[in-house]
Amino acid sequence: MAKKLEEHSKYGEYDTDGNGVLTDAEIQQAKDIKKTEDELRKHLAQLRMARYTLIGMAAFTLAMFFIELERVEALAEISSLFYLTGGGIVVGYMGVTSWAGKK
Ligand SMILES: [Ca+2]
User: Fold this and answer.
1) 15: left (phi over 0), alpha (psi -120 to 50) or beta
2) DSSP-based three-state secondary structure for 22
3) Which residues, chain by chain, have CB under 5 Å from ion ligand 1?
């Protein structure tokens, strides 16, 4: 079903061949583009989260070399939790990414 566009319609950008008529194919194309953009945004947010987690873990590990041993021992329980959680986030991200790639 083709739709005729009004002049300066906000849907004008979806009229890829610029003939003033919005065909089903053009509407589908617009939907596909929006969907791809959404997925890309989600993917980027996840990538950023995994990356910051890795950076945080690296920074935490480095910081261990600069604080007193006594404090490192006091932090041992928290740090193992921290590594487990951080590792979980990164592994989860990788799992979801490879799973999404197979779809
Ligand atoms: Ca058109």
Assistant:
1) beta
2) strand
3) 15, 17, 19, 21
38 to 11, 34, 44, 101: CA distances (angstroms)? 19, 6, 10, 16
Residue 9, token pair as written in the block: 């319609």
Q: For residue 90, how far is its CA from the centre of ligand 1 (angstroms)?
A: 44
Question: How far apart are the C-alpha atoms of 99 and 95, rounded to whole Å?
Answer: 6
Q: In terms of C-beta density within 10 A (0-12 exposed, 13-18 middle, 19 or more buried), how is residue 84 classed?
A: exposed
Residue 82 is predicted with a pLDDT of 87
Predicted TM-score (pTM) of the model is 0.60
Hunting for tokens 């969907």 — which residue is that?
Answer: 35
Q: How far is the CA of 93 from the centre of ligand 1 (A)?
A: 40
